[in-house]
Amino acid sequence: MTTIKNLLQKEDFTKEDLVFLLSVRGEEQQLLFAAAKQVKEKYLGNVVYFRGLVEYSNRCNKNCYYCGIRMGNKQLDRYTVSDEEVLEAARLVQGNRYGSMVLQSGECSGKAFVFRITRLIETIKQRSNNAIGITLACGEQSEETYRQWFEAGAHRYLLRIETSNEWLYKKIHPQNKRHDYSARLACLGLLRETGYQVGTGVMIGFPMQTVEHLAEDLLFFKQQDIDMVGMGPYLVHNDTPLASKQGNVPSLEERFHLSINMIACLRLLMKDINIAASTAMQTLHPFGRETAIEVGANIVMPNLTPTKYRENYKLYENKPALNENAEDTKKHLERQIKSINHCIGYDDWGDSRHFHVRNS
Ligand code: 5AD
Ligand code: SF4
Q1: What confidence tens digit (pLDDT) does each residue in 121-148 have?
Q2: Which of 7, 68, 215, 302 lies 20 to 30 A from 87 at CA?
Q3: Residues near 38 by Cβ (< 8 Å), separated by ≥ 6?
Q4: What percent of the chain has pLDDT over 90?
Q5: With a 6 A CB cut-off, is 226 part of the ligand 1 pocket?
């Protein structure tokens, strides 16, 4: 008990400190949560920001070993949401006063794809009179594409590093130029230089990953001075190569504890960044999302993808709310968030405070 109390007094953590903190359970874990909660309250208040999520396309040029929509998976129908449907989602964002939306997609880089995204950003910005903040999660792109989308009006970008350890990265991706760790890292740099609020993240509890790797991931976020983090548990998808390694995956309970401790530790380490309560967290545990918020997360992404497409955007098994409409999702979320004494930051982009502090 003395160790954890002493550790929680510290302003900064070493890798060894983080390995210890990620491993705590029971009473010690409660102390970790209480400290993280206090930091969030002090720096950000008990406010949760919504981002209406559109899973724009499940077409992807890549073959990540863990992902259900990898190019090699032929067990699903490929789709791209129509422009009209994206604009309808944007209307829902405004009607529901969410303030922001996220366009997430498998990785495509053709000219037509890049152009369509540019036009959609411009149209959403125009039609909402700049009321809607736009975050993109469309993978690795050229510097020119990042700039084009930024100039069109997108101002935040999420690109998960998946794991900050290059050796481990190679284990969960094919060995070719399309899945190159250095290229991914370089993209994070390009995004920063372009002017975006930059988000990254990792999967937690996949085969071969250790607590030491996770501690390194947290230090990586800090070292990169990242503005936003979205991270969540690894969940198996049966039609992927990594599914054959299920024996090496920590139990569901263990992955839940690791994920929640990761969020709490990150809040202690980076006090004013945005941290998302991921959908994968909610898949793993019925109160996963609320727990994530209670220990440090401040962003939630209600799914606004038209329901007919959702079955085909399954990155992992048992993804929730495949049929829930926007209205039900909103009511459900509002109730849950109020039940943990948080409020919702309506009509606000909910930018990363960290980004603005760095740039002021
Ligand atoms: N389990 C959990 N997260 C996954 N992702 C992809 N596949 C899985 C999986 N099986 C995450 C990756 C990716 C994001 C879009 O979804 O971190 O960056
Ligand atoms: Fe494509 Fe992203 Fe899935 Fe990799 S994780 S296969 S890049 S959608």
Answers
A1: 999 999 999 999 999 999 999 999 999 9
A2: 68
A3: none
A4: 92
A5: no
Query: Contact, 304 vs 104, CB < 8 A?
Result: no
Tell me what the mean pLDDT of segment 200-219 comes to.
Answer: 98
The pick from 55, 70, 159 for probing ligand 2's pocket by mutation, whose C-beta has the most ligand atoms within 8 angstroms, reads 70
Asked if residue 159 has its Cβ within 6 Å of ligand 1, the reply is no
Q: How far is CA 111 from CA 138, 142, 209, in A?
A: 14, 11, 37
Phi first, then psi: give them for residue 114, nearest 5 degrees.
Answer: -60, -45
Atom of ligand 2 nearest to the CA of 162: 5
pLDDT tens for residues 271-295? 999 999 998 998 999 899 999 999 9
Q: Which residue has the tokens 């959908």?
A: 279
Domains located in the chain, CATH noted: 39-359 (3.20.20.70)
Whose C-alpha lies nearest to ligand 1, atom 16? 315
Q: Is the pTM of this model over 0.85?
A: yes
Task: Tell me, using a 6 A CB cutoff, whether residue 294 lines ligand 1.
Answer: no
Measured in Å, residue 204 CA sits from the centre of ligand 1 at 10
Q: What are the φ and ψ backbone dihedral angles of 229, each rounded to 5 degrees?
A: -130, 135
